[in-house]
Amino acid sequence: MKFTDGYWLMREGVQASYAAEVADVRVDKDRFTLHAPVQHVTRRGQTLNSPLLTVECWSPAAGVIGVRSIHHAGAAERGPEFALHTEPSHSAKITREGALLKLTAAELSLRVDTAAPWRLDFTANGRVLTSAKARGTGFAVTGAGSHYSLAQLTLGIAELVYGLGERFTPFVKNGQSVDIWQADGGTASEQAYKNVPFHLTNRGYGVFVNHPGRVSYEIDSEAVGQVQFSVEDQSLEYFVVYGPTPKDILDRYTALTGRPALPPAWSFGLWLSTSFTTSYDEETVNRFVRGMAERDIPLGVFHFDCFWMREYQWCDFTWDPEVFPDPEGMLRRLKEEHDLRVSVWINPYIAQKSPLFAEAKRHGYLVRKANGDVWQWDLWQAGMALVDFTDPDARQWYASKLRALTAQGVDCFKTDFGERIPTDVVWHDGSDPERMHNYYTQLYNETVFEVLSEARGTGEAVLFARSATAGGQQFPVHWGGDCESHFGAMAESLRGGLSLGLSGFGFWSHDIGGFEGTPTPEVFKRWVQFGLLSSHSRLHGSKSYRVPWDYDEEAVAVTRDFTRLKHRLMPYLFRAAQQAAERGTPVMRAMVLEFPDDPACHTLDRQYMLGDDLLVAPVFSAAGVVDYYVPDGTWTHLLSGEQVQGPGWRRERYGYDSLPLLARPGSVIPYGESDEAAEYDWAHGVTLRVHAPVDGVTVVTRIPAPGARDSSAALFRTTRDGDTVTVDAEGVPGPWQVLLVGAQAEPGDTGSSASAERTALGTLLAVSAGTAHLTARLTGS
Fold it and tell me: What one-character-per-residue DSSP string does 731-774 give?
């Protein structure tokens, strides 16, 4: 929200007041409170008839400093609030030298000169990261009587801003006005399904605004060189989170707001959907599943979209008896005959025609208006109402309906909607409607995730969620919502996913082929490549099916080959998933996250890193031409073995059997033995693909066991010393292989027994079970 009219004036009807100086300080153990008048006070009379801001400063965790500015403190505290995870053992240090006051939390410090004009400096390692200056702390009132608390933090020259949730507008947020407000706006507008009041910059820090309601951002827009954020409230609280690297920032931010759960291994396989408004029954489902098997395309999950229930009755959690007369038998057959998991669509709304409407109304489980009426409208479902998840009894009632489905054999839920939440309502627990608008999705997804954790066990719960807010990363997976079916929508989807990853979300997916409309064969095949090189992969549409044979035979081959490639990459991908659960590092990573010291990577949004070591540049053209950037070093194309020298831009043309998929210089990529499914013993028969090993460097490769939260199971250390490459293994359950990509080699003479074979990609050395040491001598390149 903009308050000023240019640099000098305020907008009509707006009066703003800003902290001008420090009147006094109160220090209490590991925090301090500043009292700040909004004018420079030179005589006693100026203390009358003028506001005094209270500014509290403290640290909840190492490398994190909180600031809360308060105008009037008498407002009642009404929820909801984000659940924050502080460090009980952490204690900030406060020092005072004359007028200089300093709060230090590990490497990050907040410095205030109490004798100077108002200024909060956030510093680390001897440099100022950002500051709240003359207009940095304050409030504004409008002629309509609204009161806004606001803050401004400086941006340095060439400082770029990222994040704020899954946003489909330009990846770099400088110059944008952004409202953190849930909306069902598709992927082609400024609205977003997943709004997160957290941003980070390429200067080594992030900022989390701890307010679940509407947070309005002006990023290098209203005031150039400033990030301004405001809330319609009497107070504003934010946390500055230090890195210094982007990964460190996400580590500290997700430690504060919640780590992503680790999804089950099977969820990384290919999901196939009925699509939305298409016609389908059990025979259609069987035709799809048989068709995939006949074409040798491994399938992991089958998803039933909305019309598994009767029209006008969403949600009644009951299979349409005319279409699916034997749901338990159908689910049993899908599992026994095809080894599939099953997902079904749900939303948090109850249509008036649903028998559950009267039941929920009778018990008071539906959100009400101030006069006691149930809130209803006809948008989406006729006469629909909302389940009031602030009522513990309503949550248990809703959960009981889901438990009945898990008992039938349902393995996971697509938790759709949760964005269009009204503000003219009364919540069971007295929550503020403005604050609950964004937060509703957190209660919704949490309720469903808890049911799945209870029914399937820890580590087996997974959602396919559309809406989210800060902390929602704890309940993966999230997908990008309703996009069109063309190359532009494919690119905007990727922008949204990369922004979400920089907002603390570890796992993300999208509708392969696009949702609205029907993709051309060219779009479908390129989207399949992108989708199967994403965290999670689902074929889904609106009015048309997404089975690959509906497009052409080449689409079948592309789907088969890239599904099988993803399965072979599972030992690599699941380790990346563990990193998301351990530190909040997303599986799909914006280039700036991996290469913060390369300025060329700071604005890239049409390519990404998949885990630590794979660069993916999806093709966004029917002609197959792609422009992409390669960072410094010798990179290796994963599919062809071709070596590419960076740094620099490349323009290349690819057929549908390939795309830019490059292994990082010196990387060791583990390839699983099986391509039949996502979940198998990844360490047994694994092949370590060694790419341009660096002399004198040891690379550690951990191969987890499916479902393991730790990094045990198997461990390899690969070292190059001159023309000798050695690999030491620990905990490997069977035979294993090493592929020296692009190199000629022979087994070394240090006692290891291995057979050597020249392949199109390089030299393959195979060792038997029980071998813990391999040496190879490079003989050429």
Answer: S--S-EEEEEET-EEEE-SSS---EEEE-SSEEEEEE-TT--EE
CA distance 487 to 469: 28
Q: What is the CA radius of gyration of the chain?
A: 28
Q: Are 352 and 382 in contact (CB under 8 A)?
A: yes
Go through the chain and tell me how many residues it has: 781
- Helix 327-338 × helix 282-294 angle, to 10°: 10
Q: Which residue has the tokens 């220090």?
A: 27
State the catalytic residues.
416, 419, 482
Instruction: Characterize the bridge pairing of strands 108-113 and 100-105.
Output: antiparallel
CA-based nearest residue to 491, from 626, 355, 344: 626
Measured distance CA(142)–CA(314) in Å, rounded: 42
Place of tokens 């965290």: 535
- Positive or negative torsion for Cα 249, 254, 256, 257: positive
Residue closest to 148 by CA, chosen among 501, 519, 466, 434: 434
DSSP state, 427? Answer: -
- Which tokens sit at 653? 């043309």
pTM over 0.90: yes
Angle at 432 between CA 427 and CA 437, to 5 degrees: 85
Name the residue with tokens 């089950």: 264
Residue 202: its pLDDT value, please? 98
Query: Residue 614, SS3?
Result: strand
Q: What is the pLDDT of residues 215-236, one digit of tens each?
A: 999 999 999 999 999 999 999 9
Cβ-proximal residues to 35 (8 Å cutoff; 6+ apart), any chain: 22, 23, 24, 25, 26, 52, 53, 54, 55
